Amino acid sequence: MFRSIQKGKAHLLIALCCLLGVSMGGTLVQAEDGAAASYNYSFWGDTVASPAAYQATTLLSGPGLGVGPFKDPSDLHVTPDKQIYVLDSGNNRIVILDEQFNPVTTIDSFDRGGQADTFQSPQGLFVTEQKHVLIADTGHNRVVHLDQDFKLVKIVEAPESELLQDTFLFQPVRVVMDKAQRIYVMATGVFDGFIEFNADGAFTSFIGANRVYIDPVEYFWKRLSTRAQRSQMVMFTPTEFTNLDIDDEGFIYATNGDLWGDNIKKLNAQGNDILRRTGYFNPQGDVRYTNENGPSRLVDIDVADSEMYSVLDSKRGRVFTYSGDGHFMYVFGGIGNQLGEFNTPAAIERVGDDILVLDKALGEITVFQTTEYGRTLNEAVRSYYRGEEEKAFQLFNQTINMNANLEFAYAGIGKSLLRQGDYEEAMKYFKRSMDQRNYSKAFLLFRKQVMREHFATIMTVIVVLAACALLVRKYRRTMVRKRGVSIE
Amino acid sequence: MNKELFKYPLNLIVHPFNGYWDLKYDRSQKLNLIISFAVLFLLAVTNILSSQYSGFLVNLFNPNEMNSFMEVLYVVVPVLFWCVANWSLTTLMDGEGKFVEIFTSTCFALIPLVVINFPWIWLSNVISIQETAFYYFSNSVAVIWFVFLLFVGNMTVHQFTPSKTIGIIILTVVAMGFMAFISLLFFSLVQQIIAFISVIYQELVMRN
């Protein structure tokens, strides 16, 4: 404790020196030529070099696809059979592409009781496993539910609840549907979380509201102000969500614009956050950033198989991918003019292992494909998730050969070594991945093993030593007694 | 003499009241100083070794930030600050201690930090994460013991009452803060002066 206090003092000293003397150069360490290399974060929070896991291969634009230019497309969705639905908001239509990026159809209207109805700047799109299409028809303040043949199933209108103010305007921007056909809608100006509708389209509840963050300084001033002054001040309101996705098990993954706290959440049916955050840092986008630029602003999330998920940072145009345990796997993208960089990235989606990034202002979709490294890492995380220790062991070894800086991979190797019974080697790997809990597990087993092997020797030594000590004591006592007698 | 070198400080930390009395009135100052410097040295060594060799479960230490020289400074500077601040205050407040006595009593108080923490460097390598509780417990014991010895040492050396000693200790800590601030100010000013002179020199050299 004493030392840590001294150390804190020393840090303070250094910080003060920096303030007084030279200005700190807090720039983000970034790999040179964006396409060839990437970065990762070490246990200590340093940016370390890493090979690129994804590379941009194709750029898709409306004219190139033969469907006319996209105008402010805001969302896209990929079905399990790899059909790509692009929501072309500015043109009020949905463009459907197949796996080879050939246009299949375009939906720009639907039949409503014999009359053709259209969309008005829709912002969100979701396609279910049965290929039902849900459109957050923002301009018309409704959510449209079409079936696989694009026939109208139902229209969800503004929720009716005493929880909402009279002036509330229902502006759905994102929408998902779970397997029980419940619809979750993210609407602008709603701070209570997502709006949940049941299968019939009736409002049921709000789910997963963000916590309110209270700025202590602001709070202090508020305490000092009069009621009239307070009413003029900004209210403490929870932040809105920025996007959501739903996984196969019905958990909602959501991103929000929080500058403090967790900006990625995994919500269960009760609206509790159950995202596993066992990585070196909580999943949040960039860990190191300058004060001027601030943390990542996440605008989209996409859940893949094996609990992997990717988030899109609109501020720096980067796509971060995390494993289910919360380990940062890889990052790619950026803001710029080259292939693989964006202007205003708005949505991401996976097609198999490829990742599509939608650029809103340019109306383009960039296709990213895995490199050798990315493929191996994806497969390693998958087999680890499935519990195939042997395969994960091999794949993690391969990834480490390509990227020795990937610290969490060492824990993967350690775990399979632990299962194989090679405790000493497992300890080494856990140490390398700074995994204290598993290191301790391996160490306990190793200690037991050593103790068993050398039990006989250890006990012999102890017994012999005890006997020696006893003899010496006895000998001394007799000596003292003799001397004492002789003196008297 | 040789045996005394070990027996005396170890006896002092378990019998602080008698021990510090001896330190002030009976023992030779030379012996006290030798032991004091030895303790400072050992504490620095303990800290260096513990940041390098302590078990992985209790010691997450970035090897890039490990600096033995700084570890020595973390021991020596606070002790010197403490002694100077304490001496400055107690001379004004009727303390009977001389600077040497303050220094030696402070160094003797550091002995538990060595005696307890040193074996734990090696022991911490053979414990599991559940057993680290013992490690942290003995670390706390060492710190508490150290504070207690510091208190008794200060009280005995200056012949203060307990309540006055507590007051003096608090004031000393405040004075240490002031000293740290002033030395920072001094260093930054010197730095600026040096920078100023070097800039002038560069301008002159570049002018041709």
From TrEMBL, chain A:
Sequence ranges of the NHL repeats: 68-100, 109-149
Q: Superkingdom of this entry's organism?
A: Bacteria
InterPro entries cross-referenced by the UniProt entry: 6-blade_b-propeller_TolB-like (IPR011042), NHL_repeat (IPR001258), TPR-like_helical_dom_sf (IPR011990), TPR_rpt (IPR019734), TRIM-NHL_E3_ligases (IPR050952)
Q: GO molecular function terms here?
A: DNA binding; zinc ion binding
Record-annotated membrane-spanning stretches: 454-472
Q: Where are the TPR repeats?
A: 407-440
Keywords assigned: DNA-binding, Membrane, Repeat, Signal, TPR repeat, Transmembrane, Transmembrane helix
Gene3D superfamilies attached to this UniProt entry: Tetratricopeptide repeat domain (1.25.40.10), TolB, C-terminal domain (2.120.10.30)
Q: Which residues form the signal peptide?
A: 1-31
- PANTHER family of this UniProt entry? E3 UBIQUITIN-PROTEIN LIGASE NHLRC1-RELATED (PTHR24104), PROTEIN LIN-41 (PTHR24104:SF25)
Q: Can you say what this protein is called? A: DNA-binding beta-propeller fold protein YncE
Q: What is the protein's species of origin?
A: Paenibacillus prosopidis
Lineage from the top down? Bacteria, Bacillati, Bacillota, Bacilli, Bacillales
UniProtKB/TrEMBL annotation, chain B:
Protein name per its UniProtKB record: Yip1-like protein
Q: Which UniProt keywords apply?
A: Membrane, Transmembrane, Transmembrane helix
Any keyword Membrane?
yes
Task: Supply the InterPro entries for this chain.
Answer: Yip1_dom
Q: Where in the cell is it found?
A: Membrane
> How would you describe this protein's topology in the membrane?
Multi-pass membrane protein
Q: Which Pfam families match?
A: Yip1
Superkingdom, taxonomy of origin:
Bacteria
Gene Ontology, cellular component aspect: membrane
Predominant location = membrane
Q: Where are the transmembrane segments?
A: 31-49, 69-87, 99-122, 134-156, 168-201
Q: Which residues form the Yip1 domain?
A: 11-182
